[in-house]
């Protein structure tokens, strides 16, 4: 019984947040390049395999797709609609390169080390800030999920103490205050308290409510 070889995809693709700039089909095309190398497919067969790949969109969320289109347009790239355009985007991103072996057969290869988006894309200050915010959310993902679950289960409003939120969510006070401060600055929630969020003590009372318009725009991807 034959076993397919393992596709080794660089972990930096997720770590560096390339997912923000990769439509689903382009990401799958990136995986396909790993498949070609795992199976030692090259030359015309490799090119045809990529160009004829049936890369369907399985997890499309309209808001996410529109955001990716907006981001790519802002960076000066066309949102890919064909497999050829997926390959071209990977080449422009410097994530993939085309080389030749000693017999002249074309090879599609991962570029390593993987470049960071900041190194190959013309990112303005707004986009760099967005990347930092995404990194913050990933770092505090558990705290976000626990707090937002509590808030949504409370019909979008909380009138309580920081200590009660901490005991209910099991999120550390320091992480909780960072997440509250982030969400307030983002505009997803409104907070009324006797002092600034970062200065709240555990028994201080807070009134928290969802700002529906911003919340629905910013928080639709939170699980």
Report what the structure shows.
- With 223 residues, this protein is mostly helical.
- It folds into two domains: 11-117, no CATH class; 125-220, Arc Repressor Mutant, subunit A (Orthogonal Bundle).
- It has eleven helices and five strands.
- The protein has a three-stranded antiparallel sheet.
- The mean pLDDT is 91.
Order of helices and strands: HHHHHEEHHHEHHEEH
- What is the count of DSSP helices, taking H or I runs of 4+ residues? 11
Cα-to-Cα separation, first versus last residue: 40 Å
- Mean pLDDT, to the nearest integer, reads 91
Total domains: 2
Give the structural class: mainly alpha
Largest sheet: 3 strands, antiparallel
**Shape label:** elongated
Radius of gyration: 22 Å
* Fraction of residues in helix: 40-55%
Strand order of the largest sheet: 3-5-4
Runs in which pLDDT lies below 50 for 5 or more consecutive residues are none
What is the number of beta strands?
5
Percent of sequence in beta strands: 5-15%
Strand and helix map with partners:
Blueprint: H1 12-15, H2 24-38, H3 43-51, H4 62-75, H5 83-92, E1 96-100, E2 106-110, H6 117-120, H7 125-139, H8 141-153, E3 157-161, H9 162-169, H10 173-186, E4 189-193, E5 205-210, H11 212-218
Antiparallel strand pairs: 1-2, 3-5, 4-5
Helix pairs in contact: 2-5
